[in-house]
Amino acid sequence: MDDPVTAQGRETRTRIICAAAELFGLQGVAGTSLDDVRAATSTSKSQIYHYFGDKHGLVRAVIDYQSEAVLGAQAESLGSVSSWDDLGRWAEMMVGEAEQYGMRGGCPIGTLAAALADTDETFRIALSDTFEAWREAIHGALSRLRDRGLLRPDADLEALATMTLAAIQGGLLLAKTSRDSGRLRTALDGGITQLQTYSAAPAGAAAG
Q1: β partners of residue 164
Q2: 31 — phi, psi (to 5°)?
Q3: Which of 6, 63, 96, 208 has its CA 20 to 30 A from that of 16?
Q4: CA–CA separation, 203 vs 208, rounded Å?
Q5: Residue 106 within a domain
Q6: Domain that holds residue 25
Q7: Can you name the residues that pair with 199 across neighbouring β-strands?
Q8: Number of domains forming the structure of the chain
């Protein structure tokens, strides 16, 4: 397995990863063969093996690709949270993204974790690391709320960040299976309401 050194090689490798990520989302990792990926990308078996070694290598590349995409978007949106209103806008962004895709696919990381966490320890660790980085981004947003006096000093931010991430994952799964974005909105609104029980001031007064 070699890293591409030319622009064309990098483009080909990225194209294969993107196609595999889409196929994994549509028909699952187990249900997607290397021949499926080859057909979708018009590439040869030798190219697949050159860039990824085998299916295991391709799956790991997809995990890295999806992790970077999800964490990049979440880090940017959560990084702007410094008020309850900001947190509400972040929740609406999550719902809007789910609606954009017709509530299909769910969370790419959650979908991969459901398929792979019990089948391969290296995949499990990689996905766990992604969830931990996501939880840390939520923790950072909550820390800013606490620093601004919007959360009580004694609020357990570790637990609240975990609870919020669980609301995201559960809401996305329910939205995916019901094709109803309202399930995700309800889960996120419930999570924010729970967070506001730790508010240092009434939520309406602190929302600015």
Answers
A1: none
A2: -85, 5
A3: 96
A4: 10
A5: yes
A6: 1-53
A7: 151
A8: 2
